[in-house]
Design brief:
The chain is built from no helices and 28 strands. By secondary structure, it is mostly beta strands. Pfam families: LRR_1, LRR_8.
């Protein structure tokens, strides 16, 4: 394992196109002299103790395709000259101490597929330009201090993972996200969201995980979510959702995790929910639900956790036939 500063003499290796010094104990700044590495395409300095700002010289390396600077102690802002990196495919800057705004010039990185900026101190708005990157597959800006509205996506047909949690957005979920037909994960936890869950989300037939928990969402759970045939995890807990749990959720044969606790849901748990063969966790506590546990519960062989306390169930004797391994509260 290497320690100490990155040798500035590396700048003399002008034919270098691949540099991986990840998972070491390197300290100090990234050398400004790296601007001589004009053939460099892959730079991995992940998981060290590097500090200081990302040098401007790095944004002059126009051949760069993959940059991994995550899990360091880097500070300063992201340069507006990031737009010079027109060949950039992956940029990992998460878990640092970066501040300032996300540059609008990022839109010039027209080949960008993976952008990870989470776990920093970034402020301002999430630029609309990011949502216009047709090549973008992964966008992770969680755990920052971003504000303003979440922009309606433009041409993000390739977007698969959108992680926006732990920010301070205003307004609701843009219905246009339903046009991101490749979306697999949408995670926007604890981000001050208001309004309703768009019924258009029923178009997301590739969606595996929907996590909008710990917000201020209101209205009913859209029955159209029953069309999200790939959905495995539905987490909407700690909101202000009301009405009944849609029967249509029982059509989701791959659903493993339903977490709707701490809302204002009412009515009975639909019988269709008890017939989801893959169900492992059913957490519905702290609502206004009524009814009884049906006999169908014994068919849920994968079920490990049922939590229904603080509701208005009748005749709940908890003689749960054959469910001794499950945790029931």
């Amino acid at each position: 394992m290497f320690s100490g500063p990155i040798p500035s003499a590396l700048a003399n290796c002008t034919s270098l196109n691949y540099l991986d010094l990840s998972v070491n104990e390197l300290t100090g700044p990234i050398p400004e002299s790296f601007n001589s590495l004009q053939k460099l395409r892959y730079l991995n300095l992940y998981s060290n103790y590097l500090s200081g700002a990302i040098p401007e010289s790095l944004f002059q390396l126009t051949s760069l395709e993959n940059v991994y600077l995550n899990s360091n102690n880097l500070s300063g802002s992201i340069s507006m000259n990031i737009g010079n990196l027109s060949e950039l495919v992956a940029l990992y800057l998460f878990d640092n101490k970066l501040f300032g705004t996300i540059p609008e010039s990022t839109v010039n990185c027209s080949h960008l597929q993976e952008l990870y900026l989470g776990g920093n101190h970034l402020v301002g708005v999430l630029p609309q330009s990011l949502m216009n990157l047709e090549s973008l597959i992964y966008l992770d800006v969680k755990q920052n201090d971003l504000r303003g509205a979440i922009p309606d996506p433009g041409n993000c047909k390739s977007l698969s993972v959108l992680a926006l949690s732990f920010n301070a957005f205003t307004g609701g979920i843009p219905p246009g996200l339903a046009n991101c037909s490749s979306l697999i994960e949408l995670v926007v936890v604890h981000s001050n969201l208001t309004g309703a869950i768009p019924s258009s989300f029923g178009q997301l037939d590739q969606l595996v995980k929907l996590d909008l928990s710990e917000n201020h969402l209101s209205g009913e759970i859209p029955p159209q979510l029953g069309n999200c045939k790939s959905l495995q995890r539905l987490l909407l807990y700690d909101n202000r959702l009301e009405g009944e749990i849609p029967t249509e959720l029982g059509m989701l044969s791959e659903l493993m995790d339903i977490e709707l606790f701490t809302n204002r849901l009412s009515g009975e748990i639909p019988i269709s929910i008890w017939r989801i063969p893959s169900l492992v966790h059913l957490l519905l506590y702290k609502n206004n639900l009524t009814g009884e546990l049906p006999a169908e519960i014994t068919e849920l062989k994968q079920l490990k956790n049922i939590s229904l306390f603080d509701n208005h169930f009748l005749g709940l004797s908890l003689k749960i036939w054959g469910l001794m391994p499950a945790y029931i509260s």
